[in-house]
Design a protein that fits this description.
The complex is a heterodimer of chains A (139) and B (707). Chain A is an alpha/beta fold and 139 residues long. Chain A has a 5-stranded parallel β-sheet with strand order 2-1-3-4-5, with helices on both faces. In chain A, helix 4 links the parallel strand 4 and strand 5. The longest helix of chain A has 19 residues. Chain A starts with a strand and ends with a helix. Chain B is of the alpha+beta class. Chain B is 57% helix and 17% strand. In chain B, strand 17 and strand 18 form a beta hairpin. The longest helix of chain B has 118 residues. Chain B starts with a helix and ends with a helix. Classes of the chains: A alpha/beta (139), B alpha+beta (707).
């Protein structure tokens, strides 16, 4: 059986674990992959494109990361000719309206203030994911 | 000339001889002709006699007389004609020759008649021959006459021709001579004309010279008058005036100078008139005048009858023609009166707290004060008479001279401190320093001077640059601080997210469902984490307010208020708070999100700090004055003691922490927002009597609305 993949890009391990567990609580249809920072995530995406493997169904992207921050990574993905189709959900400890606006303008599917609760995940995120999965499923 | 004359004499002589000869030969021929003519006439008469005789004889013959009686005597008359003695000219003619031939025949006839033989028969041929001789003789006479006429006409014609020729020949040399003479006379004429022109030019020149001489004489008279007048001016003026030769020896001196300096001035050296302390200066001054070839003035004093007399010496070069320097004039003006004025002026300049110099219209320094000496290190005496640019670094001098000339053309008060040009002064030791210069033109004794006040601005400049550096440093620090607050807030939040997240998961964990003690502790952890989160959120908000620029708009206050109250619905309902809105509200010129944040904080505080036993009531009223619009928010809460009212806006300041879960940042945010808007916030409160907050936002100004 082949899983659709969800990527969690966050330098904070605890947050990764918490998010992963929260997702597992809600659904078990997805394989969850962790990326410790935005650079790793981008290089992995590039190698997937090269090998023509499956792209992730969804990316959770933390904003405040060392070196390359989440918004810059988002911009790179959304301006890439193949990668731009992947839905990206931005995560941040803040809920600053400017930051939110910036993320949505750059092409993020949504912006969520941490921690992501189970309710929020099942009510808002999963529907979004299901909506976009058929287009982003197996290649 | 003589040749022509002799030639004409000769020709004339020849012509006269020709005419003489001609007339002589003509006369000769005429004589001959006349002889011939006379001869012929005689012969013709003879012939007629013969003819008559013959005719008579013939008549008698016919009558039958055989010997005519008439013959007796008249026959003797029938002598044969002889032609031996005929003039030679007649032999030229053929008819005469015929006459001679016929004559011989006639002679024979006559002979016959004479012999009286056959008189009658021979009579008729003799008659015929006689007649023919007669006619031939007449012919010859005609010929001779013709010949004579011809000779005469030939003579007239030839003599006329000869006369004409003679005239022409005699005239030719004269004509030639005339021609030559004419030519010569023409040339002479031309020469004469030239001479005439030369003469008239000379005449003009002489006229002009005469005029010049007259003019010069007049000028001389005038110059003499002028000189006399000048001399009398110089002699009668009260100011001593002297002239010096090139070595500084007095050549002339007017009475006033003798009065001042004593008698017998002429021949003495000028500088020796002064005391030894001044003599050198005076001599230097004369030398300077010579070097620069322009006049200079400076002040000296002499002692006379133990009284000090101040003099202003003006030494000017005296120039002869071609500008050559031949000596100096000295005008020594007594300025004891003027000196007092100048002394006052000098003292005023001296007393000035700033270094000052006074510059004349040539750009030369005429006055300097002690502060100037101190600043530049030059002695006053070293500055006097020097061009002002000796105070300027040599690299800027050229430009400075142009500036000075420009300024002197149109002097007006101005201050020069050009950041771009950077004026510098140069001290005697050639060190440089930045200066600020203010220029003030003044009119003194109809001359323009410029007073320059010079300020050393190196301290000021270094302070300014220090200040700029500090300012930069400060803004950098500020920036860093904001970055720090932002980063810290974010990073501090991250562990809280972890803590509250895992705690939440533990609380929801079915395994802990019955462990009440543990659950209680987990809830305490969760609450604290939330409190911490709120605090951090507030701090984050504060840093954002500080950091961000404003985006002000005209806001409909009522709508904003309603939105704020709506956002606080839960809080308001749970505490049964009553809010009274008292319109009409005025529009507020502010950033919407920040105004909302303010109102949320103040209304939130009003609810938080309510009296425990009284239902909270909040009244929202409009505020307006000519420059501000705003809101007044009044509550019936616990109030703020007067001595704490200034502290409430300080960050983390909470008056009664035990009462509620505030972070102590709220009012700080409000105050920061108000400051950002150039607005004001007032609190009016009494402990136990509720609080009244007044928020004032400046109205939109014209400049703002233009942007």
């Amino acid at each position: 059986m082949t899983y659709n993949t969800i990527w969690i890009v966050d330098d904070n391990d605890d947050h990764c674990e918490l998010l992963a567990e929260t997702i597992m609580d809600v659904t078990s249809q997805y394989r969850i992959e962790r990326k410790p920072d935005a650079e790793t995530a981008l290089s992995d995406l590039n190698s997937i494109v090269e090998k023509q493997n499956s792209l992730p169904s969804l990316i959770f992207m933390d904003i405040k990361m060392p070196r390359l921050n989440g918004i810059d990574a988002l911009n790179i993905i959304k301006t890439h000719s193949l990668l731009y189709t992947i839905p990206v959900i931005m995560l941040s400890t803040s809920s600053d309206s400017r930051e939110v606006e910036e993320c949505l303008t750059a092409g993020a599917s949504m912006h969520i203030a941490k921690p992501l609760t189970r309710q929020h995940l099942s009510n808002r995120v999963i529907p979004e994911l299901k909506k976009s999965t058929p287009n982003n499923g197996l290649k | 000339m003589p040749a022509y004359r002799y030639l004409s004499y000769i020709i004339g002589g020849i012509c006269f001889m020709g005419i003489f000869y001609l007339s002589y030969s003509t006369m000769h021929k005429l004589n001959e002709t006349l002889d011939g003519l006379n001869y012929l006439n005689q012969k013709i008469a003879d012939q007629r006699g013969i003819l008559n005789h013959l005719s008579v004889l013939e008549e008698a013959g016919r009558m039958g007389e055989s010997t005519p009686r008439a013959f007796d005597s008249p026959i003797q008359n029938l002598k044969p004609l002889d032609y031996e003695n005929a003039p030679p000219i007649l032999f030229n003619d053929t008819s005469f020759r015929n006459v001679i031939v016929q004559h011989s025949q006639l002679n024979e006839a006559l002979n016959l008649i004479t012999k009286q033989e056959n008189v009658v028969s021979t009579l008729s041929p003799a008659l015929i021959t006689s007649r023919s001789v007669l006619s031939e003789l007449i012919n010859t006479r005609e010929y001779i006459t013709l010949e004579m006429k011809g000779s005469l006409s030939t003579f007239v014609w030839l003599s006329g021709l000869i006369l004409c020729l003679a005239a022409v020949l005699v005239g030719l040399p004269f004509a030639a001579q005339h021609r030559v003479a004419l030519k010569q006379s023409r040339e002479t004429n031309k020469r004469l004309q030239l001479k005439t022109q030369e003469l008239s030019a000379t005449h003009n020149t002489m006229g002009n010279m005469l005029e010049d001489i007259i003019y010069q004489r007049r000028q001389a008279t005038r110059t003499e008058e002028n000189n006399a007048r000048l001399a009398s001016i110089i002699n009668s003026t009260d100011d001593p005036i002297l002239s010096l030769n090139m070595t500084g020896v007095i050549v002339t001196a007017n009475p006033a100078s003798e009065k001042l300096f004593g008698d017998n001035l002429i021949g003495r050296r000028f500088h020796q008139l002064f005391g030894s302390d001044i003599a050198d200066q005076v001599r230097a001054m004369v030398l300077t005048t010579q070097e620069r070839n322009c006049g200079s003035t400076f002040d000296v004093h002499i002692h006379r009858d133990s009284q000090r007399i101040d003099l202003s010496l003006t030494v000017s070069p005296i120039r002869a023609e071609q500008n050559a320097l031949v000596g100096f004039s000295v005008i020594a003006k007594s300025i004891s009166g003027m000196m007092q004025e100048q002394e006052k002026f000098r003292l005023a300049v001296e007393a000035s707290p700033n270094p000052m110099i006074m510059v004349n219209h040539h750009g030369h320094i005429v006055l300097a004060n002690s502060r100037m000496e101190k600043l530049f290190g030059f002695k006053k005496e070293e500055l006097y008479g020097q061009p002002v640019h000796i105070l300027v670094p040599s690299s800027q001098r050229k430009k400075h001279v142009e500036h000075v000339l420009d300024y002197l053309k149109n002097p007006q008060s101005r201050s020069l401190f050009d950041k771009a040009f950077k004026l510098h002064g140069q001290k005697k030791d050639e060190s440089r320093f930045p200066v600020e210069i203010s220029l003030t033109p003044i009119e003194m004794a109809s001359e323009t001077f410029v007073i320059c006040s010079i300020i050393d601005v190196s301290d000021r400049l270094s302070h300014q640059s220090e200040l700029q550096t500090l300012n930069k440093e400060l803004s950098r620090k500020n920036n860093e601080l904001e970055q720090f607050i932002y980063a810290v807030s974010h990073d501090l939040k991250a562990p809280l997210v972890t803590i509250s997240g895992f705690t939440q998961r533990l609380i929801e964990d079915p395994a802990l469902k019955d462990c009440e003690k543990q659950l209680h502790k987990l809830h305490r952890i969760l609450n604290n984490a939330h409190a911490m989160e709120t605090l951090l959120q507030d701090l984050l908000d504060l840093s954002r307010v500080i950091k961000r620029d404003l985006a002000k708009t005209q806001l409909n206050t009522e709508i904003v208020l309603n939105q704020v109250i709506e956002s606080m619905e839960t809080q308001i309902r749970s505490t049964s708070t009553t809010i009274h809105m008292m319109p009409p509200f005025y529009p507020i010129y502010a950033q919407e999100s920040l105004l909302k944040q303010c109102l949320q904080n103040i209304i939130g505080n009003a609810i938080k700090y309510r009296k425990p036993d009284v239902k909270p009531t909040i009244r929202v009223m409009p505020f307006a004055n000519p420059s501000y619009t705003g809101l007044i928010i009044e509550d019936n809460g616990i109030g703020i003691p007067e001595d704490h009212q200034t502290r409430i806006f300080t960050v983390f300041e909470r008056l009664q922490p035990q009462l509620c879960d505030g972070t102590g940042v709220g009012l700080t945010i409000v105050k920061t927002i108000m400051e950002k808007h150039d607005g004001k916030i007032f609190v009016d409160s009494e402990e136990g009597q509720g609080s009244k907050f007044t928020l004032m936002f400046p109205k939109e100004s014209v400049q703002d609305s233009d942007v």
